[in-house]
Amino acid sequence: MSKKERANFGSKLGVILASAGSAIGLGNIWRFPYETGNHGGAAFILIYLACILLLGLPIMISEFLIGRHSRSNTARAYQVLAPGTQWKWVGRIGVGTGFLILSYYSVVAGWTFEYVFEAVTNKFAGKTSDEFIQSFQAFSSNPWKPVLWLVAFLLSTHFIIVKGVEKGIERSSKIMMPTLFILIIILVGCSITLPGADKGIEFLLKPDFSKVDSSVFLGAMGQAFFSMSLGMGCLCTYASYFSKETNLTKTAFSVGLIDTLVAILAGFIIFPAAFAVGINPDAGPSLIFITLPNVFQQAFSGVPVLAYLFSVLFYILLAVAALTSTISMHEVVTAYLHEEFKFTRSRAAQIVTGSCIILGIFCSLSLGPTQDYTLFGMGTFDLFDFVTTKIMLPLGGMLIAIFTGWYLDKKIVWEEVTNDGTLKMPLYKAFIFLLRFIAPIAITLVFIDELGLLGT
Ligand code: PFF
Question: 38, 77, 113, 154: least surrounded by Cβ within 10 Å?
Answer without folding.
Answer: 38
